[in-house]
Amino acid sequence: MLSVKGLKASVGGTEILRGVDLEIRPGEVHAIMGPNGSGKSTLSQIICGRQDYDVTEGEVRFEGEDLLQLPVEERAARGIFLGFQYPIEIPGVSNTYFLRAAVNAVRAARGEEEMDAADFLRHVRAKAKLLELDLALLSRPVNVGFSGGEKKRNEILQMMILEPKLALLDETDSGLDIDALRVVAEGVNALRSAERAIVVVTHYQRLLDYIVPDYVHVLSAGRIIKTGGKELALELEERGYGWLLEEKLQA
Amino acid sequence: MSDQNKELQELASKEYEHGWSTEIEAERIPKGLSEEIVRIISAKKGEPQWLLDWRLKAFAHFQKLEEPRWSKVSYPAIDLQGLYYYSAPKQEPLKESLDEVDPKLLETFDKLGIPLEEQKQLAGVAVDAVFDSVSVRTTFREKLAEAGVIFCSFSDAVREHPDLVKKYLGSVVPYTDNYYATLNSAVFSDGSFVYIPEGTRCPMELSTYFRINDQKSGQFERTLIVAEAGAYVSYLEGCTAPQRDENQLHAAVVELVVLDDAEIKYSTVQNWYPGDEEGRGGIYNFVTKRGACRGRNSKISWTQVETGSAITWKYPSCLLQGDYSIGEFYSVALTRHAQQADTGTKMIHIGRGTRSTIVSKGISAGRSQNSYRGEVKVMKGAIGARNHSQCDSLLIGDHCGAHTFPYIESQTPTAVLEHEATTSKISDDQLFYCRQRGMSEEDAVSMIVNGFCKEVFNELPMEFAVEAGKLLAVSLEGAVG
Amino acid sequence: MRTTLTTPSLLEGFEAWLAGRPERDQPHRREAHALLRDGGYPTRRHEEWRFTALGPWAESRSPSAPSTVATAGFRAFDVEGLEAIDLEFIDGRLASVPEIPGVKIVVLGSDLGPEERPANSSDSRGDVPALELLNRAWSDRGVLVEVEPGVKVNHPLHFRFLSAAGSSTFTQPRVHLRLGRSSEVKVLEHHRSAGESTATNLHFEVELEEGARLEHVQLTLLGDSAAHATNLRAEVGRDATYSHWNFVLGGRWVRDDLHCRLAGEHSEMRLMGLAVAGGEQMIDTHTRVEHGAEHARSIEEYRHVVDDQARVVFAGRVVVEAQVRDSDARQTNANLLLSPDARVNALPQLEIYNDDVKASHGSSMGQLDEEALFYLRSRGIDEATARGLLLWGFANSVVEQLEWPALAQLIQHEVQGHLGEILSLEEES
What we know:
With 251 residues, chain A is α/β, with parallel strands linked by helices. Chain A has 8 helices and 12 strands. Chains in contact: A-B, B-C.
């Protein structure tokens, strides 16, 4: 589904990704872990089409198509979703209106008809309830005045409504208390399916207790230095990242 | 970044929708400005002597004035002698019967979405349609009369309600007020008159639609609205003009008088022809709008959406004379291409406990210049006065300008005044967020700008709010960048 | 745009005065004088002079005659613990030239000094302000201070401006301060008067080259009848940082024009101001912050406490020029009115010609926060004390940001004195 090969990227002349390879197939859940500044966020931003980075080498393909040539919104229309680490506030635009505009834009790009307004609203409310999201937030401006936890749940709500093929969740666990973490994880797990892939970018193992990954990748200094199963995350939790770096150096 | 800008730029060059003109034979008087012309206009209207005298005093005063140049707009000198001061469709119809209105005029207003047949209209909105210098029809007059509400053209008001006109004309904006108001006082041709009697809530929204059609003509209309004690009215104003290469002058005066516990809500969607991409043509819009809150607990609320005109020079103001009176100003001003807007408000606090709110949203694109200019002044007696002002500007592209010039004065220690202003571009983060959710850049910009203006749109009557949102989207199309 | 007024005496007798000056300086002085004579003093019709007129202060005054007073004996200038190097100006004329390692000091407007020209290029275009013309024409024995590249001056420079000549003169001191690359210095610009109705118009030009740092405190502590203007022109180079503090704690009429330009990339500027005004004081401050280079930051904060019949004007303009990207400009202005006859005008202005900008201003006017007052009283503090505390907090929030302890202490003492007066009068009434 997603194939990243030898990806190198820099910002302002500083190289951040130094050759990343990653293969993700439908139905899989991947976790990308790593210390701060390792390039985790950069990788997901580049996959989604953020223009602040210079891709200097390598390629990113999605279902065989060269992703790097597509503008952000077309990648979204192909089914790529980014859960933002810091969701953006848009004053004056109601959350529901925003969601509906997004859904209809994606549907239009796929040649599908607009969703009926009433059906849409019912659908959104049902999902919001599932996420224990205060329904009043639906009519409030996008993320404005939301608490940290509300913002993160709102991201998951958008994901549930947009039903992407590939969801990249960037530090979705940061700023969440344990109850919120459980709710968010349940939302993500509800979306797990054979057609859909999920990539969880995180600094801590905590979230992976709830969203159990098939693969864990460790990103350090712009490279994936180790890939393993879910047990790798536990090992990292116990021993930190230091031993991996040493192992890498010795190799 | 550059990709974004390019798309934004493309977004900003959508055509003006109301640029067509109506082929209709016009009756004009000779070109130019002179005492003789003032007399001809007055005679055409069959005006009483007192009104002619008033015009002549204004004209005499005008001779002493110089065109003001303090605002942040630049334009070549206006050749006042090159203008026609009166232009009316030939055979001015008797407006009582629709059958007698020239079908071409009906067609014109139909095309503008303002049908003049009452049965075709939105229930609950009465319209005075002004075409060049004259009012061609006022709808629902009878129905309004039942409630005691007077809604008619200014000329009719002079004929039918001379005492009211005499009492209030020039009482808020004296003929000596400023260059353009003085000019208007001398040569005004028509406009709307509204009178809401004591304790009456006007049963429908009132609306005036201004259309400039003729070439080389100036439009000088006057609006006078009086709300007696306990009265309420919501008044809407819309304007369009054909696309012409020349600049046309529009210098209107609006006076509002509000007595005890009364309220006037005055909304404007100004969409005069803005000129083309190169800055050719477009209306010069120099307007004086002022309301006097004379009564205790009286209220005036100005809401404006300004997207048209080559030059906008306009400061709808409130004189808060009555104790505990309230003034509000909500404004969206969007400029693109070579448009220039210098607009804002004045809130003069005179009475005790007076309150005012200012919300101004400016959006500049293209090579346009967009300035907020506002004054908040608290006089000595305005004990406990309050003002809150919020002025935000968005810049789209790096060839335009956004400016904020508030003048704040307090002479009262118990007054509390707060002013805040911000200027920025549309945030890259917001654009990326919307686009990641699948929206095109154009839709994202439109959505973000609409959100930016939300607080002002909320103040507009429903149909107008929808209209304003669309107008903004259209103006942003191709205007972005 | 100026309208001509009656001819004041500063415009007369110029040629006779000029005859005694160095010949090479005469052309530019004559030019400035001619502009002033032809244009007249600005009146209230001039946007920059909406609230005060210069003419009445300049009329019937002449440039100073050399005075014999010595500031050294004038104890009021002493600041405990300042350990400064003094530059003394008596009635606009530099009295003596100190020696400072790494700093070049040259007397301007004398035969010894360099040829003088209008230095700041931004002023040579368009309308030269009247204050500057006055100073250009009449300044005598000003000073050029150059801090050599890389020099960090250990002791602050203390410019002591004493006005003593009284009601017949309008003194015109002039200071050019240049900081070479990566140099650093602290400057105290200190104004005092010893006489009735003195009037001073200081022209202060500041240039910061790449990476230089300047902490500049202007302290105006004049007598109740004094008139004073500081006309500051500052240009901040690449990576340089300029902080200007403006404490106005005295004077009948104080007009400050601060015209500061961020001329180099990544330059920074901070303009801080506090005025405590009472009696019939008129304090008229105009600031202009120009963002002329990319990635520059400016912060401005002005606070005013206004009592009695005093009047305060704050006109703060921020300009971001076209082509200048990534600018951050913030301005706040807060005013407390304490008397029914006090008056405040605020004109915060943004003029922005580039979209890559974050600019904001905020201005507020009012009285002490009633809720805060209530809160303090609910904790057992009596009302007068509570008011005093809040007033002090309002004013001190500017002073406490000054990282110059000896000076901050003096200013706090002065502010307390002023506020104490205000509060004790309130209690009596």
